[in-house]
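Researcher: Can you fold this with LLP in place?
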Amino acid sequence: MQLSGTMMINPQGHLEVGGIDTVDLVKDFGTPLWVMDEQGLRQNCRKIKTAFNALGNSLVLYASKTLSTISIYRIIEEEGLGLDVVSGGELYTALKAGFPMEKVYFHGNNKSREEINMAIEAGAGRIVADNFYELQLLNACCAEKGKIQDILLRVTPGVEAHTHEYIKTGQIDSKFGFTVSDGQAMDGVQAALASPFLNLLGLHCHIGSQIFEMESFGHASSIMMDFLGAVKEETGHEFDELDVGGGFGIYYYPGDEPRDPAEWARAIMLVVEAKVKEKGIKMPRIIVEPGRSIAGPAGITLYTAGSSKEVKGIRKYLAVDGGMTDNPRPALYGSKYSIMVANKALADAEEKVSIAGKCCESGDMLIWDAMLPKVEAGDILAVFATGAYNYAMSSNYNRLPRPAMVLVNEGKADLIVKRESYEDLIRNDVLPERLNP
Ligand code: LLP
């Protein structure tokens, strides 16, 4: 178990976060409950920002696909970070948060005409073109408006990151980006440079997520810098920015060994500086897009323990009042999480239990074989590092309303996402006349 940010065990033997006893949080807000530790979140932003700023001209964007809410965007802005958005919905949230649009980078591999127009009109700082289709669409939309848009091109460097199949993206066989090795990337650059409406400021890559080997980032940066050199040689064009994506790994479970953000910064910046000298090209501003490493460790999910079932000689199942609807990652990726009985945090571990969700699906298991104190119905279970890709990937499967989210800080808890009601669940249902005689 690794307690991060302001998480601690208080004298009552309860898990506390943001200066509030989780038992009190549950009394006030019910379960399941997503809890975000504001100070933890801010510290994560600062650590990464400081690490990169210390080594040169850089900008940290928060990859908002990780956890996108208006309040979270406000904190990100206060911390001086920019924002990576990937859809009209995330852009809309940023607009509603009053986020400075010049610091918004719009990613995605299939942006619609409506999304592109929305981004141009909103004044998004950069739109990142992923493929030739998008380049043409962008060009057409800008031409229609007579507007010049700053863009980046997403490039596929061909780096195999050691992470789950579904979350690695930099390898050649990927749906994302212009591939360097087959000449597509150079053609993409030429096409962008030929457009009077597109101002090609830089290149972008992202090799995957939950990565612990810093060499992978160095390797990707090196390939990107070689490509920057090749572009200068072939076209004379030099870039202002190089965006090397996110992917910095965090602690979920024993065996995960997160590195210091300073190591991440060094792995990228030292390679870039060396290549600048070697290739005689201008030093680009380095952009990174961490998501998980900002929001992940700052979040916990609180559940109430309910039914249990012992399969003699095999295992004990203990069900909680949430599951794959609020955290699909174990079912989707086989992800592992750490858990604690929040109201018995100092009690000795006594039994091995597997934590099941409440969905009608055998695969709805949150945690296998955790050693916990004796858990009784009504106990509060805390699952750690759920700030990233939980709320963001949640669903209403089985028509379960999504939980509430609270932001805790210095003994105060503020609701930042309301618990869904049954009424919310049917809000978009339409009953045609003929079914309603
Ligand atoms: N930039 C780009 C272009 C990305 O595609 C991503 C994540 C990030 C930045 C942020 O990566 P991070 O720092 O969070 O690793 N749903 C999966 C993760 C998918 C990541 C997709 N892209 C999961 O729950 O593990």
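Model: Folded with LLP in place. The first strand starts at residue 8 and ends at 9.
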